[in-house]
Amino acid sequence: MATYTVTKVTTRPNTSTQWPWESLSSGYGNLSEKVVISTSIDSDNLVQTSSFVWASKTDYTQNLRGADTRDSVLNTKQDEYNTYMKTNNITSRITEEDGTVRDFNSSNKTFEEE
Asked: For 10-101, where are the alpha helices, taking DSSP H only?
């Protein structure tokens, strides 16, 4: 089965602001068999790039916001992350393997397709 890769680039305004995962914790624990995550932080410590390699595109789409099959822990954590990002002026962009791009909209705390 082919994998499906999603890249998320998150930018914080300064190094005094913690990354969401530092402040909250990850919501991907229940999905360890479906997704492998690797993360790097740039030299100025303001931009984090995460690569999510899903077992399949179906596994990814079944865990998007609004999917009936979405993991409940991930759903709760996403709400916490998005609120934290809005409160702390953190931006983020998700780029899927198929070229789909979603940007974080802080006004409604969601990722919206470009």
From this structure: 20-23, 57-61, 72-87
